[in-house]
Amino acid sequence: MCPLIPNLNSHTRLLVVQHPSERNHALNTARLLALGLQQAELLVAESLAEHPQWLAALQDPHWRTELLFPGPDVPLVSAQPEDSRPRRLVLLDGTWRKARKLMHVNPALQALPRVSLPASLRSRYRLRKVPHPGALSTIEAGVEALRILEPGLPVDQLLAPFDALIDAQINAMGADLYARNYRTH
């Protein structure tokens, strides 16, 4: 799979805060995102208080830092060229429950302006049952945000190892088991 991981260079920086329980997950899409994008960093932590350098970075007024996380009345991510500061998007990696916990225990994340993705997006993650429309894996969310912010960036390259990983998992489980548990009719 390593040859499939691109080496993309974006203007937008991504910080993925990963819940510690996700670190060794077999389908760790946050790690794939961080490996394929030069301007992405993966921080495995439940509490940002243990990482004062990141707390300071999130509050740096020279950066336009936003949390990519859905919610009622959260505006869609957009380019907004009138704000010329460099942009940093923070993504939370974990189950929805763990992602909400990351927000709850980190006032610095709660204080960030939030942006979201269109709810009409569909996940390619065929091995998970989606809890609600628009629910995406971390790599898919990062790709879709970059697709909006940097239309010329070949972000689909980031999904090649993700797709290969899913295909390998489906092949390993067998077509019958996959059809019984994941296919929708």
From TrEMBL:
SMART domains: DTW
Annotated transmembrane regions: none
Protein name: tRNA-uridine aminocarboxypropyltransferase
E.C. code: 2.5.1.25
Organism the protein comes from: Halopseudomonas sabulinigri
Pfam family, one: DTW
Domain DTW: 1-174
Keywords recorded for this protein, A-Z: S-adenosyl-L-methionine, Transferase, tRNA processing
Protein family according to the UniProt entry: Belongs to the TDD superfamily. DTWD2 family.
